Amino acid sequence: MSKKSLLFSLFFVSLLFSSTTKGQGILYYKAGFLDDAKPLLISEIKSDPNNNAEEYFYLGNIYFNQNKPDSAEICFKNGLAADPAYPQNQVGLIMLRMKNDPQGTELELKNLLKLKPNKKNVDLYIAISYAYLFNNMEDKALYYQNKARSINSKYAGVYVLLGDILAPKNRGEACSNYELANLYDPNNKEAYIKYARAYKSVNPKLSIEKLKQLKEKDPSFALVDRELGDIYYSINDFENAAHYYESYIQSGISNVQDLTKYSMTLFMNHEFQKSLEVATMGLQKDPLNPAFNRLIMYNNVELKQNDAALSAADVLFNKSRNPEFNYLDFIYYGQALRDTKQISLAVEQYKKALEYDSTKVELWKDISDMYNEIGDYANAIDAYIKFINSLSDKDRNADVIIALGKLYYSYGNDPKTTPDVKKSALLKADSIFAKIAEMEPDGYRGNFWRARANSALDPETTLGLAKPFYESTAALIESKNDPRFNSVLIECYSYLGYYTLVQKEYEKSLEYWNEILQIDPNNATAKKAIDGIKPQKKNEK
Predict the structure, then answer these.
(1) Using the 8-state DSSP alphabet, how is residue 117 labeled?
(2) CA distances from 202 to 172, 207, 242, 372 (A)
(3) pTM confidence score
(4) Rounded distance, CA 267 to CA 277, Å?
(5) CA–CA separation, 231 vs 214, rounded Å?
(6) Residue 202, C-beta contacts closer than 8 angstroms, at least 6 positions apart
(7) Which portions of the chain are predicted below pLDDT 50?
């Protein structure tokens, strides 16, 4: 969706809510979309103040289910005033008192049903059944559902009601009744929706099939797209989820929560620019919404737009309304700080992420890497040890362990490191690399890094501490005959050539330098060494 079309969609949200189709709110209510039904019902009541008894009844039910009995009572009374002949609002008022006065309210309902216009009113019996169901009085709800079915056994609403009664305890039986409702009324939308919702978590494929059947029957019923988006999102099919959310957003009846879902789906599908546009538009509707500020930060980090990410982070953490933080918030904020070279602040955020979720042990490695970036090797080592200690024995492999050895090696070679710490760090590195050599008897890494550590312990190359390890490495690499390792061989021969030169073993030294020229004929160091050795050999003679 282009930015222009998104803007038009958001414009039409207010337009459509101000000119809703009569009955749309009731349809959404019956299908279980209470949050969507509420503003629609309110709009319909305002647009037709003389004919709204039914809308007041369903709006009252929404308030009752939101535990707002005072608001529910006002709606039911307004509904009765609008049309005293619409008895469901009388049921609504009785529903408010059912739990506190079960016997008295039951008598009131029996008297209401004795009235001639009400005796065969199947919708009234259904309303009474729902009143009991909303009060968790299932036996009474079933009793009046049976009464409704005895009046009209082919009325779809009777079976939707039975499905709603059974759904919490018997999904299969509930869905059988939703299917029966569709048998008697193939256009009964709430039966399709409720069937799909019942199987959403256990058989999403079945839910998707049912919703697509409804979409074929009524392509204009936009909430089907949102339901499909929700199901695809739940099974991590973000591409299809984004497609259906986009279709729903374009319908113009979306709300802030829907924009949040759409933006998050685009983010999960790695459509970061598009997700950012949706979140930015959502922010225009609700500037302090933490979800939009979060998504703006996340997307800007992914897009390497770090100044914008940091601005969004400031709003999220310091100004947004009732934010509930998660570990990812601190990781993304930390990444924005890291990308702008504010490493100390970035480390603080990563540590906060660990406070929110201590299972994310890999963050200790990230913290170690950040300390390493700024040459704080002591803290880098400390963080990396925490990372290693958090791993199982199986995960503590050679790749993981050798990285610790390299940190000690870097610490030992840092000019800022004092001599005593330098020696201790290099010895520690050597012991770790020795372990790698044991773990990988056919590999070169352990001895190669032991050579480097020992070379650093013998900077004048007088003791030859690195010699046996460079020799072992060279022998192993030579056996591989693989040009990928030529740089390793050159390092081995360079050390051995220099060491033998210091020891005045000129012939041996020449052999090593010539081996380098076999690999790299233009190697300047080897050429210079050979030129320097020739006069020494003449002097010996």
Answers:
(1) G
(2) 11, 9, 22, 47
(3) 0.74
(4) 11
(5) 15
(6) 171
(7) 1-20
